[in-house]
Amino acid sequence: MAGILQSLLMYEAKPYDIHGREILRANSKYYVVDPGLRQLLLPDYQEDYGHIIENVVFLELKRRYPNVYVGQTSKLEVDFVALNNKNEARYFQVALTTLDEHVLSRELRPLNKINDSYPKFLLTMDTLNKDANYYGIQKKNILDWLLEEKYKEEIESEFWLVFFFPIKNM
């Protein structure tokens, strides 16, 4: 796995204890640098739009934030914890759709367990209720989120090379 990571074909998202605010050692998740590679690398590949959009969101978070992790809170997983340069967190749950009440409840549960004031987002492909707010958890359509301009200044203030390497880490 180290060779694949060093070749930049995949990224590692380490687990992050949200309550203890520390990086954990076990159970990392891996995301391909190009979602099309997943089809090539997995012999029994089947279209799974949920995994594809999760991968796309991870790549965009890597572009926007210096540190992206998989969040752990008690026994629940938050898809992503993104930390900015000031170590301020943003929490993200990603789902293809949450139009089913059971799916919505399942996706909101981990975010509801977080007792801090950092922003929490539920990203879906839904076009109905795409700007809903669930007690401080902001739902957004993934396509709208990907096209947001408000992160442009933050991204441009960093020195980035062509392959998303922050110069400060080189």
TrEMBL record:
<dbReference type="Pfam" id="PF13635">
    <property type="entry name" value="DUF4143"/>
</dbReference>
<keyword id="KW-0067">ATP-binding</keyword>
<dbReference type="InterPro" id="IPR025420">
    <property type="entry name" value="DUF4143"/>
</dbReference>
<dbReference type="GO" id="GO:0005524">
    <property type="term" value="F:ATP binding"/>
</dbReference>
<protein>
    <submittedName>
        <fullName>ATP-binding protein</fullName>
    </submittedName>
</protein>
<feature type="domain" description="DUF4143">
    <location>
        <begin position="8"/>
        <end position="94"/>
    </location>
</feature>
<keyword id="KW-0547">Nucleotide-binding</keyword>
